[in-house]
Design goal:
single chain, 327 residues, alpha/beta, four-stranded parallel beta sheet, three-stranded antiparallel beta sheet, 13 helices, 49% helix, globular
Length: 327
């Protein structure tokens, strides 16, 4: 028996010392702002756990008066997410600015371009309809996507998306992330602040971001943390239960859409363990045992994750990232 063989990626393998990790990240934030010669930091706060953890860490590191939170709703955003974000800022004493980006998105053609592609699949689609895209597990590693729409009277329709329609819908909705990032840099530059990016390790390593959008930042303090570790840190920091209980969502499409159904095709906890197992150079069979899924499903996930990793490495913007992994 090889005693040096990595252990299977059970949830316990991702355990961290939250107190020391919070201190380490805080020191990274302070040192990076000093290196950038910036007085504080700006971040988008969505009402989700990643931005909430980053807001807590930034306020602890530099003081709440030197952190600006931006709330940037648009036509398809949920009111509940915005309310959670406002309550978080109030609880931390962080000043926040609300920038509704619906009108500029309308002006640039975001909704029009998206709806043109949708109507090629569902000609009746129009005012009052809602939509989202969902990944479909196939027999190969190549992802496939369905378009799901809901009529004003509540009927649900679903259809496989051809590649050209999928690309147009995604390209149009990506205006949202890019416009939000432009708003962050506007406020950062007027205040001489740095832009803090909020991706976790799953998003950062696997490219779940928009180039020139949420992938862009001056520094990314939790990009080394698995989602499991972000939740552990959220509990340690006292992030409100209403945020920690909320399932991760893209909040990009008008129908509720999880990150699992749009990008990872696995729950975030399973995706964590697959990615961790890959990092530990475990076999698909070993990872499958830990995740509790069949080997073929895990093997397809590994193939897809490898492809996402390659694409992410080419797309990542330059940013300071805390290295060395979580302690």
């Amino acid at each position: 028996m090889n005693e040096n063989k990595p252990t299977a990626p059970h949830q316990s393998a991702l355990a961290i010392d939250c107190a020391s990790e919070a201190d380490r990240i805080g020191a990274f934030i302070v040192a990076t702002l000093r290196k950038l010669n910036r007085r504080g930091c700006v971040l988008g706060v969505s009402g989700g756990v990643d931005s909430a953890v980053c807001a807590h860490l930034a306020a602890r590191a530099v003081g709440s008066d030197r952190v600006l939170a931006l709330l940037m709703p648009e036509r398809d955003s949920t009111k509940e997410a915005g309310a959670r974000a406002r309550r978080l800022c109030d609880s931390l004493g962080i000043p926040h600015v609300e920038e509704d980006i619906t009108d500029p998105l309308e002006a640039i053609g975001c909704y029009r371009r998206r709806d043109e592609a949708i109507r090629k699949q569902f000609p009746d689609y129009g005012a009052g309809w809602r939509q989202k895209i969902a990944i479909v597990a196939g027999k190969t590693w190549m992802p496939q996507f369905n378009l799901i729409v809901q009529s004003p009277d509540g009927q649900i329709f679903e259809r496989r998306l051809p590649v050209d329609a999928y690309l147009q819908i995604v390209a149009a909705t990506n205006f949202k992330q890019r416009l939000r990032k432009s708003m962050e840099y506007y406020h950062a530059e007027r205040l001489n602040y740095g832009v803090l990016g909020t991706p976790n390790k799953l998003e950062y390593d696997l490219g779940f971001f928009v180039r020139g959008g949420d992938g862009l930042a001056d520094f990314k303090p939790i990009a080394h943390l698995y989602k499991t570790q972000v939740y552990a840190l959220a509990e340690h920091l006292g992030v409100p239960d209403e945020i920690r209980r909320e399932p991760p969502s893209t909040d990009t499409y008008s129908l509720t859409q999880s990150q699992e159904e749009f990008y990872f095709a696995l729950s975030w906890s399973d995706a964590d363990r697959v990615l961790h197992g890959m990092s530990e150079k475990l076999s698909a069979a070993e990872i499958a045992i830990a995740v509790g899924r069949d080997r073929s499903t895990v093997a397809r996930a590994i193939q897809e994750f490898q492809g996402k990793r390659r694409a992410a490495s080419r797309a990542l913007a330059q940013a300071y990232v805390l290295g060395g992994g979580a302690s």
